Amino acid sequence: MGALSAAAAILAAVRAIPRGAVASYGEVARRAGLPRHARMVARTLASADDLELPWHRVVRSDGRIAFAPDSDGWKEQCARLRAEGVKVIAGRVRMPARGEPATLDAALWGPVD
DNA sequence: CATATGACGTGGG
DNA sequence: CCCCACGCCATAT
């Protein structure tokens, strides 16, 4: 058991995020059984080679895109999210309450507006 | 071994 | 909205 399985757990948690939903780095870490490892999640995504990995569904705890505003990665993530129905305003998305199951429904319709 | 760095998080002013 | 401090952790230098 080492860094290798930790990365596997993180990738699995990311792949588990439903299409049209989002999760914070810290939330992904918790779901992967690695609390306080938000930074490791970021590192893992940065070095991931899996083209199918839905990395764009991972944002900061406050809903902001983690990349520098207007950077290539920032634009790419905004586009990918919008492409699957997620509302992105000023590089920001509505985050599900802590512990709440980010469902497709919640992401698409969201509670009130 | 000491510092510096980040696709981070939380709290406070 | 801004800014800052501090905690946290794997890597890089």
Task: Tell me what the structure shows.
The chain has 113 residues and is mainly α. The protein has a single domain (6-109), classed as Winged helix-like DNA-binding domain superfamily/Winged helix DNA-binding domain (Arc Repressor Mutant, subunit A, Orthogonal Bundle). Helix content is 42%, strand content 4%. The protein has five helices and two strands, in the order αβααβαα. The model has no long low-confidence stretch (mean pLDDT 91). The chain binds a DNA duplex (13 and 13 nucleotides) through residues 3, 24-26, 29, 36-43, 45-46, 55, 58-62, 65-68, 73-74, 77.
Largest sheet: 2 strands, parallel
Q: Helical residue percent?
A: 40-55%
What is the overall number of helices?
A: 5
Architecture (CATH level 2) name: Orthogonal Bundle
**CATH fold annotation:** Arc Repressor Mutant, subunit A
- Count of folded domains: 1
The number of distinct β-strands equals 2
Low-confidence stretches: none
Q: Averaging pLDDT over every residue, what do you get?
A: 91
User: SSE string, helix = H, strand = E?
Assistant: HEHHEHH
* Strand order of the biggest β-sheet: 1-2
CATH H-level homologous superfamily name? Winged helix-like DNA-binding domain superfamily/Winged helix DNA-binding domain
Helix/strand structural class: mainly alpha
Radius of gyration: 13 Å
**CATH domain class:** Mainly Alpha
The rough form would be described as globular
Q: Into which percentage range does the β-strand content fall?
A: under 5%
